[in-house]
Every structure is written in C-alpha cells, then in structure tokens.
Amino acid sequence: MEIENEAYDLLVTRTVDAPQERVWRAWSDADQVMRWWGPQGFTSPMCRMDFREGGTTVVCMRSAEDWELYNTWTYRSIDPMDRIEFVQGFAKEDGTRVAPAELGLPPGIPEEVRHVVTLSPIDSATTRLTVREYGYPNPEIVEISRAGMEQVLDKMAATVAGVPGSRRAFSRLDIVGLRLGHGYSLSSPTARHRAARSRAGHPARR
Fold first, then answer.
1. What's the rounded Cα separation, in Å, for the pair 188 and 171?
2. N-terminal to C-terminal alpha carbon distance within the chain
3. Rounded Cα–Cα distance for residues 71 and 98 (Å)
4. Is 60:69 a contact under the CB 8 Å cutoff?
5. Best exposed site among 13, 28, 123, 156 by fewest CB in 10 Å?
6. 147, 158, 166, 189 from 163: Cα distances, Å
7. b/e per residue, 82-120, with b = 16+ CB within 10 A?
8. Residue 61 and residue 71: Cα distance in Å, rounded?
9. CB atoms < 10 A from the CB of 50, how many?
10. pLDDT tens per residue across span 78-136
11. d(CA 82, CA 142)
12. pTM flag (> 0.85)
C-alpha cells in the first residue's frame, strides 16, 4: 500500500512602493538584506552574501533578548531583476547546516524549504513582489511561516520605500511570530541554551 505525504505551500504577495531595481537590490545586496531580515523586533547583524547560482548566503536574525538564528539561502536559479529560487536551511554562525531540532525548534519544521521570489513591475515606481514557499508538512506550520514572512516583507517594503517601519515589536517569538502550543519559545532559556550550544563554541550573547 502506497501512502503519499501531502505537502502544503505558502504564498505571500506585496505591492511595494519602489522600482523593481531597488526591490531586487534588497534581495541581492548584503547591506540591504540586513536592513529588513527578521520579523518585527528583530535585527540582522550579519549577512554573508554569495549571490550566484550554486552560491550560499548565510544570514542572521537577532531578537531583543540577543537570541540569534542563522539561515542559509542556497541559490538554484537567478533571473536578474525578475526571479530568485533558493533553498532555505538552518545553520550555525559559520554556515554549517544544523537540524531545526538542534536549535530547540518544534517538531514539523522542515530542514529545507524551497523559496521562489518573483518581482513584476507595475509601473516605474511600483513593484509586485511574490514569495512562495514549498513543502510544509501541515497547515499549522504554513501559518507559522506566514506570520513571520508577513512581518519580514512589511519591513522590507518600508525599507525600500524609505518609510519608517512599524513600532510594534515582538520580543518573544516561536519560530516566526506566533506562540505555538508546543512549549517552545525562541526566547525561553531552554531554546536559548540549545541555540548557544549549537554555535560551535560561541556563547550566547547577554
């Protein structure tokens, strides 16, 4: 008997008040990525960019409690100004891949998620941005990712448009903006300890 594992995808769109070239730069330039990566209340202190097909970018988000999460973006295809396809994973600071469970994240978080980012000019000063994420195991994880991506894209849109971002800051986060029912909190002592232990000898920031 063959059993198929159903997968769930995520789609988020934004109309950005900025020309296509400026939105493209927000995804392809390390300094620009650090201005918006991470949900509200998070900063991005590091982005080690290798923006080319086959390259891998390592990017960090940091909470108000100094908890850090590192992701990798490994690029499968890049169509200049129009489309970026990459696979996102979890990592240590040096880019070494780690499983989500090693970071204290709840079950069901995939080790890898394929992303496709598309940019379509509406006019010379406005761009339609679409982000698709593929292969989540259930609708609950999709909504967790949606909560985070919505906040991330709000920050990005405000940054490229030159508009001050929202003052609403989230200092407690389970994955990307929601308190799950799993007893995990990214800013909890347990998760912070697990994250610090995974960082190859780098102690947690205080």
1. 11
2. 53
3. 10
4. yes
5. 123
6. 21, 5, 9, 35
7. eebbbbbbbbbbeeeebebeebbbbeebbeebbbbbebe
8. 8
9. 15
10. 999 999 999 999 999 999 999 999 998 888 899 999 999 999 999 999 999 999 999 99
11. 25
12. no
Structure confidence at residue 192 as a pLDDT band (50, 70, 90): very low
Q: What is the C-alpha to C-alpha distance for residues 50 and 180, in angstroms, rounded to an integer?
A: 33
Report the SS3 class of residue 76.
strand
206 token code pair? 């205080």
Length of the chain measured in residues: 206
Listed in sequence order, the DSSP H helices in the chain are 20-28, 30-36, 139-161, 189-198
Instruction: Give the type of residue at 174.
Output: D
Nearest CA to 109 out of 173, 176, 192 is that of 176
Phi, psi (degrees; rounded to nearest 5) at 33 = -60, -40
